[in-house]
Amino acid sequence: MRSVRKTFGESLVLREVDLEVAPHTVTALIGASGSGKSTLLRCANLLEEIDDGAIWLDGEEITDPRVDQDAVRRRIGVVFQAYNLFPHMSVLENITLAPRRVHGVPRAEAEQRGRELLERLGLGAKADAYPDRLSGGQQQRAAIVRALAVRPRLLLLDEITAALDPELVAEVLEVVRDLKEQGMTMVLATHEMAFARDIADQVCFLDAGVVLERGSAEQIFHAPREERTRRFLRRFT
Ligand code: ADP
Ligand code: MG
């Protein structure tokens, strides 16, 4: 992202945001509620239109008005905080929907791939269950499977553990850790500071729509340069 600006009516929510994400790395967005983390992720996925600046994906400027936005979104997987799964569909139906409808993958192939992914994320037995039969942690893991089912180039995760009971957080973070090991490129907004410190190659601290400070996890968590970053991090220690 280069000099990205985003307003909602009168309020300037992202100002001059520069962000570079290298392939196969994990970027953690941290910052207070309302600092712009979700908006940044939504802009990256073209769910929100930016007012100024530009965004590239794999060298292509995706904010160019001539670009096919649906084609771009197909290359990006997104998981939100909650309510990710369609309640009236089984887990397998949920995760084969996009590959079949959007990518034209034949049902048998989509289902086979879906079952493999579920197996890999420890949800093999839940393929035919409906979401309300799953724990919150299982639902989020299934939502991650659904995002992965279209083989995205980039995965955006927006506080995916925030709505979970504490005892269910670890199993979801474990999945993210596995994905990192497999080389998935991810940008995640999170309040799990220990996790961010552990997994992120790059940490960005957002403050009122500005990337106030960025650096390695080591630098941001152990030697933050900005007073505001220090003040924010103190809340978690
Ligand atoms: P975070 O995810 O860091 O909590 P958000 O990106 O959700 O922050 O919000 C950043 C700011 O943008 C907040 O002030 C929020 O109220 C505002 N905002 C977000 N979405 C909208 C919207 N659709 N319309 C108006 N204001 C919005
Ligand atoms: Mg948010």
Automatic annotation (TrEMBL):
Main location: membrane
InterPro entries: AAA+_ATPase (IPR003593), ABC_ATPase_HisP-typ (IPR030679), ABC_transporter-like_ATP-bd (IPR003439), ABC_transporter-like_CS (IPR017871), MetN_ABC_transporter-like (IPR050086), P-loop_NTPase (IPR027417)
Bilayer topology: Peripheral membrane protein
Record-annotated ABC transporter domain positions: 1-233
SMART domains per record: AAA (SM00382)
Claim: Transport is one of the keywords in the record: yes
Family according to the record: Belongs to the ABC transporter superfamily.
MF GO annotations: ATP binding
Protein name: Amino acid ABC transporter ATP-binding protein
Alphabetical list of Gene3D superfamilies matching this protein: P-loop containing nucleotide triphosphate hydrolases (3.40.50.300)
Organism: Streptomyces physcomitrii
Pfam families per record: ABC_tran (PF00005)
UniProt keyword terms in alphabetical order: Amino-acid transport, ATP-binding, Cell membrane, Membrane, Nucleotide-binding, Transport
SUPFAM superfamilies, per the entry: P-loop containing nucleoside triphosphate hydrolases
Subcellular localization, as worded in the UniProt entry: Cell membrane
